[in-house]
Amino acid sequence: MSDQSLVSDFKQAMQELAASVNVITSQHDGSRNGLTATAVCSLSMEPVSMLVCIHKDVQALAEIRASGYFCINVLSTDQQSVSDVFAGSTGARGEQRFLEAGNWTSSQSGAPMLDDALASVVCELEEINTSGTHSICIGHVREVRLNRGSSPLIYARQQYGTLTELPETEKAA
Amino acid sequence: MSDQSLVSDFKQAMQELAASVNVITSQHDGSRNGLTATAVCSLSMEPVSMLVCIHKDVQALAEIRASGYFCINVLSTDQQSVSDVFAGSTGARGEQRFLEAGNWTSSQSGAPMLDDALASVVCELEEINTSGTHSICIGHVREVRLNRGSSPLIYARQQYGTLTELPETEKAA
User: Fold this and answer.
1) Is residue A36 part of a domain?
2) Is residue A10 part of a domain?
3) Which end of chain A is more exposed for a tag (fewer CB within 10 A), N or C?
4) Of chain A residues 91-130, which have a CB less than 8 A from chain B?
């Protein structure tokens, strides 16, 4: 497999990997930063921790490093516009993104929590490991807020979707 | 927030984090191993790499370390029984899991690829970093096989589901 076709096939494979859409936020010296991310995992149960993969050169990563905290906001289907703004589709950056989309409150750590997110998980930064183009931010969970009523916003195959329970017939397969 | 309620809230938050269901496989000294995992991310584009979080004490992790390769098989809705078997629900272990569910072929590295998985991505193990209860396996992508026809099998809220495209009205929200 040539390098070029490997990369092309890898990109297509990653489009098949469905995931919740999250907005990762931080606050440092009174300035708020955030970006949309799908590469987010539960990591450890003891201590409770999560990880998020962020491009190593983005400003949001520098802000997370400086503040020592980040908040993972798990979006609902009602928050597609928040995802778009924090993915940069409107051209807004930094504080402007928070003004354009969503209602935000400050966590104890300062990291912004999105009102009506399915879950907001505030993590204290434990370490950042860079591997290739991206950095893995590992954080210990310090604060959790839940709003579990709505449906999850999922991204796959280059489009937004939501979760539908499988019918019982398929479950039995 | 007490430690106990933090852990309980964290568990509930993680139920809201929807993700594709994958079976991670390896082969070492002629013996095949595999387990079901949802904590799987695309990591880097240059080099192309992925990560998967696996409990640090499971046999499958030892086998990945020994073989130096692992394959991430992204499941379709038709492969719920494969997910169940590799999650341990039938009590099968090691080679027996491969006999109970799915049709498997060997990748060039030896790591088993699941026929009709939406994607199978073979990675060469780059490093393993342990954090708390889990280890992060980082691998460089060496081989990709695609079968993109079916719907992705997704796990969230303690049940299986699949992806439904959002209606245009919600998209405009």
Assistant:
1) yes
2) no
3) C
4) 118-119, 121, 126-127, 129
